[in-house]
């Protein structure tokens, strides 16, 4: 046999069934070598008169997880995926796809071209290309609707969510669910059962009736989710084409749509984020096989919104939590909210009916800090006050067992100063969760000057276990995300004084693709956050709003007026306050263009990102992008601020910043951002 690197596909004969096996770690992506091997395998089976049927399966953790994304945008090597799929489809002997792990994208399309499909119960099947700004371009949009109908196909193709083997069997996507541990044997037995059946069933020969109602209902239900993205609409168009065009014409249409998306900036951005997210998990200078500290019980200090949300992450992952509060009432309220959140998720069918009990059963509420003595990781989530945090860490130093990791959920404060209040700064780091902490995917892990390598690596690995996307940040005010938010807020406030309205500034951000603009964000978070609470000291528009009790959505008044359903309308009172400030500071009012708002609120964020990188407070530009995508809802189709700056052109960004008098980061000027 040739070495697995050169030919990752081998064949094995089991009597009259030929088993074609791909072994291309980590995920059996359909790269050039795999495609070549598949071509050879199928040819062998077709040519051999003693073979009546074939089974196609993969070794390792998964069936083909898709086309090899690293090959995208490069010249095609060897046989193309379309040709391999055509060959499988046209095989004169039936081929059974035997699926385990995840049959995704091109992998699912290969399975759809096979004449039969079997899967183990834990398998998942899906077409997630839309999440990469693409569509299933190897026949998936034409074959899947022919197998599962328009409604199910739209959900799988235009939303990109995979289905379980059970669901796949229900909708006809797999013919049989086989034994979890007997995939190959069961697939061979299945192949023998169908070997002589004629005509050989081919998906291309099936028809699917148009279903305009299903298409309309899908658009209605998902319009918001798809806003701004090019790929979902193209996916829908292809599914419709499957109902209207003959198979080969449909394929042609699919290919044209695919090429448009593939050469566009959105897909480049989304593919960038796919790899950025995985890259973020790697810590420069720390070996990936470093021994991790075991984490069996987590302690959380504070049962408020943050502490409760943080605890839920661990409980949901099956990790026991001890949660501490000072007052019984606050403790009961906090745990009550957690239970309610779980029950609401169960009622919506998002988690199993017994999941709330299971999760809450792992929770130990207490009023005694000493109860944290058996915790392997303790996360402090009390309010932002350095003295309070130092006092808590001083106590933890005495209570926590040796080797326990001590983390602060601070969003701004100096982790090194906190660590210095213990005798074990090497065990201390920041774990900055984003609110709501049980929902938001981002976790900034803050590496202090003395944080030990294994402490950092353990926190990163744990983040994956609780399904967070973690990014390593250095100690700097606001870390990566909030530090970049600051110049945006400063400029947004100045723009108000110069003549822009909150509505205009927010609109520019939402049209850009952000879920909300700076003032909508203030209203949601609370205009009173960080306010000095002296109603007579009014130094900014924000102070004036806070002093009048316009604290945001919770008061139905902030930068906007709100009705009971929290729908915002522009506020005449806020316009007055702004006008008053402007005239008192003799600031002339002028027309502000949308472009100026972009240049003065978004470009400074890029500049701050570049400074953070220059100072070594983030490992790489793509980490900064990940922070903004997963922590603040930056539109994924723009790939994060650093990717966006590059696609806009660094020169343009630099010129925009200089025009408005900003001091531009050296690496941004030189175009050498890493
Ligand atoms: C497509 O098929 C289009 C077809 C039309 C053609 C005309 N290619 O996620 P993990 C790497 S589009 C190349 O950490 P998990 C990944 O970068 C594709 N590399 O593992 C990582 O590398 P690293 C449609 C890939 O167990 C390593 O494998 N398919 C690919 O948490 C491990 O990955 C998809 O969109 C790939 N396709 O999750 C599926 N996939 O170790 C994309 C992964 O050097 N993949 N790698 O950092 C996934 O969703 C997940 O990887 C997973 C496994 C669920 C398969």
TrEMBL record:
An individual GO BP term: fatty acid beta-oxidation
Boundaries of every 3-hydroxyacyl-CoA dehydrogenase C-terminal domain copy: 478-562
Keyword terms: Fatty acid metabolism, Isomerase, Lipid degradation, Lipid metabolism, Lyase, Multifunctional enzyme, NAD, Oxidoreductase, Peroxisome
A Pfam family hit: 3HCDH_N
Protein's cellular compartments: Peroxisome
Residue intervals of the 3-hydroxyacyl-CoA dehydrogenase NAD binding domain: 298-473
Database matches in SUPFAM superfamilies: 6-phosphogluconate dehydrogenase C-terminal domain-like, ClpP/crotonase, NAD(P)-binding Rossmann-fold domains
The keyword Lyase appears for this protein: yes
CDD domains, per database record: crotonase-like (cd06558)
Claim: rRNA processing is one of the keywords in the record: no
Oligomer status and interactors: Monomer.
Entry protein name: Short chain enoyl-CoA hydratase /3-hydroxyacyl-CoA dehydrogenase
Species name: Sphingomonas palmae
